[in-house]
Amino acid sequence: MIGKRRNARVEEFGDYQTPDYFVDKVCQYVKNELKLDPDIILEPTFGLGSFIIGSIKAFENLKSIFGIEINKRYFDITKRRIYEIVKDRSIKIQLYNEDIFVFDFDDIKNYINKNDKLLIIGNPPWVTNSDLGSIDSRNIPLKSNFKGLNGFDAITGKSNFDIAEYILLHLLHEFKNYNYTIAMLCKSVVARNILKDLKRSNIKISDLRFLSFNTEDIFGISCEAGLLIMKSGNNSRLICNVYDFDNPIDIKKSFGWVGEYFISDIENYMQSANIDGKCQYEWRQGIKHDCSKVMELSTKQPDGTYINGMGDRIIIEDDYVYPLLKSSDIKNVIITSTRKNIIVTQKEIKEETNSIKDISPKLWLYLQQHSALLDGRKSSIYKNAPRFSIFGIGDYSFKPYKVVISGFYKNPLFALVYSKHGRPIMLDDTCYFLGFDNFKEALIVMLILNSNIVQKFIKSIAFLGSKRPYTKEILMRIDILKASKNITFDELVALAMKLHIEYPFTREDYNNIIRQLSMKSAL
Fold it and tell me: Largest CB tally within 10 Å, which of 61, 118, 181, 332?
C-alpha cells in the first residue's frame, strides 16, 4: 500500500494499492527464483487483496489463505473477489476484518503446522507512527517505546518508526518457530532497521536479500524501496545482499553487521575500516525550537528591524539574537555569513528565562505576543521546562569556530563556520557540529573530515536513502586520530588548495593537533 499523498483518510490506513502487474512480478520471483511453492499464504494488511489474488494465480498447491484488513469496505470487496476466483479450487480461506496492531495471531497459528511452507507476502503501510499521530489516527500501534529507547532519544525522534517496520518485526516474532518466507515491499530504511534489530533477537534467518526497484515507475513517488526477502532457518544471517529487481543476478552491494558495527556498504567499508572507532570530539546537534515562525528571523534590516517567519517586521533588542545556519545553507567549505538569525533564549538547557523581561523587554513582549504558538509546541521535551525554552543548547553552542555537516544531504560536506564580526553562528537541529576555540585546529579537523578516506568511510556506514543519513551515532564513529595517521601534511595542504582554502598552518601545527588527539584518546 503506497502512493502519492492524498488525504487524511488515505494516510490513516496507508491506503495505497500495489499495481496488479507488479504483484504478478513479485509472485513469479518468489516462485521461480526462490523455488517456493507455498502451502499457506498470509497477507497481514491485504487492502483490495492484490497479493492474495496474485498468489492464487501463481501458486498451484495452496491449501490455506489468511488475510487481515481493518478497512471494512476493502474487506468486503476482497472477500467477493477471492471467493469468485477460488470457487473451483479446494483452498481454505480465512479473512479477518480486524486491526493488525491488536490481532491475536494464535487464531491463524492454530491452523498451521510448523513444517508447512508459509509465505507471508504483501505491502504494509509506508507511513510512520509520527505521520499517523499528526492526523490523530486510530490505526496506530499501541503507545509504547517498542525499541526500548531511553530518555531524550525516546522523546525527540529516535522513537519514530515506520509502521511497516513494526508489523514486520511483530510477524518475525510471531512466526519465528515456523517454516516461513517473508516477501514484503518496503522502504530501504525499513529493511535496514529490521536487520539492525535482528542482532539482538533470537530470530534465525537463513536467507536475507533486498531487491530494489524504481518507485517512480511503479507508484509515482520518489523513495528508495524494494522487495525484502527473509527466510527462516537455523543460521543467523546478519548480512543482506542488495539486487536490482529487474536484474536479480548481480549483487549491487551488501549491508549489515561486520563484527559489532552496522555497515551500509561492506565492500567500501573494508577499504576504510581502519578509521572506524570513536571520535575524539563530541558531535553536537543544533538548536531545537519547533517554532520557526517566531524564533527564526531575517538578518537585521537597514532600519534596525527584523522580519519573522510570518512576514511581520519587529523591533527587539539584540541581546538574544544570533546568526543562524540551516542544512540548506551548508554548501561551501568555509562559511562566515548567514541569511537568518535566531532568538536564543537560554545558554543551557533548563536555564530560567524570566530574566529576558529585564534585559530585553521588547523581546519579552514579542515572545508573549506569540505565546500561543510557543506554549502550544507539541513535543514533550517542553513539558515542565521554563517558558520559551529551546533545546540543543550549551557552552558548545557559543564556540567561535564550528565544523558543521548537514544531516540531510547525501554528500557529506564538512564546513568550517565562523563569524568575522560579532556573535558566534548557531546551527539548527538539522545540522551537527564540533565546537572549537582555535581557528587552526578547526581548519585542520575540517580538512581531515573532507579527506578521501573519511569520505569513503562515512558513506560506507551511512544509509544515503534515509531522510537523515548522517546522525550523531554515525559521526561519532569517525576516529579523527586514526584518520590523521592516513593523511600526510602534504596531502592536507593539497586538499586545502583543491578546495581553494588558504592554509595558515604549518607542519608543526598539524603535528601538534595529532598530539592533542592522542592525548584525548588516552583519556
Answer: 118
